[in-house]
Amino acid sequence: MLSGKQVVLGVTGGIAAYKAVELCRLFIKDGATVRVIMTAAAKQFVTPLTFQTVSGNLVYDDLFAGSQRYTVDHVGLAQGANLFLIAPATANCLGKLAAGIADDLLSTTVLAAGCPVLLAPAMNTKMFENSTVQENIDKLTLRGYSFVAPVEGELACGESGGGRLAPLDSIFAAAKSLLLPALELRGVRLLVTAGPTREAIDPVRYLTNHSSGKMGYAIAQAAVEQGAEVTLVSGPVTLPAPAGVRMVRVTTAQEMYAAVLSLYSEIDVVVKAAAVADYRPATVQEAKIKKDGDMALSLVRTPDILAELGKRKQNQVLVGFAAETDNLRENALVKLARKNLELIVANDLTEDGAGFNTDTNVVKFYFKDGQEKQLPRMPKLAVAREIIREIKRIMNIV
Known about the structure:
By secondary structure, the chain is an alpha/beta fold. It starts with 5 loop residues before the first strand and ends with a helix.
């Protein structure tokens, strides 16, 4: 079932490291390719030769060995992976990941990974219950890491309690769920808008905003993960297109309006995450405007794409965004009703970790049925997955 899947298996220095050999074998037996990264401490418990024999691949254990092979291992391993699994994950490993420390090949590669990361902690009971370890787990959970919690049982130190590595079949099942998602949106046609628009003043200058497109691109990725047929209508950004997404690139608000409206009848769900310019210059100068005193611009409104979608809506699900600097709830609820939306995702641009050009967001959901839901500060991909989860609920896909 895992044929074609690439798994990076990180092994850290705990007595449970020997169990990772059998875990590696389970992936190989199911058709996956496994690349093993070992820390220096892990090699005190199991030899690299053991993992090399089981996986059929060289074991990676040296951050600087890549220079001898003319490759950058931590980048290459991360780019090719469909899943990054660390089992066992020691308290030291969790602490380094939570703090963003990258001082060996394993920790460096995790930071470069764009795939799901699954952690299976294992340690002494008192260590696992330590408040610092629990805080680190909470931090990593908020950043989108997945966990297979340790279980209670007899530990190598002779004590009995929580901290024992989860059963291998539980870890393997959790890994497979990340490698083979349910694809509950298979057949659903979803359109996402992302990024800013640019409204020309002259051949050199234009009006725009600070949108990076990260939120919209994350939503497109999260929808593809669930099997949706995704069209991404994007303003000018520097982000790479998510794999499996149909791209439509535009520059101006009018171009985005035309692109979205032309596709609307074929679409089941629209998530309007783009930050479209509300105004454009009434006239565009054919030549560069020279600096000669003050300059006054006459502006006219651009088309309201989301409002037009709301008017034309048949059976589509419409999701909008409200980026505000004050009166968040009031402004979001007005927009939710006026534009005929099922859900509006609101964020306060003045809040730390929210808004444009950040990798995180802090949002609140307001639903057509009156429900509200506040999310903590999370990576934008984690927020995107929450949005897709709510769309499935609205569509009664459970």
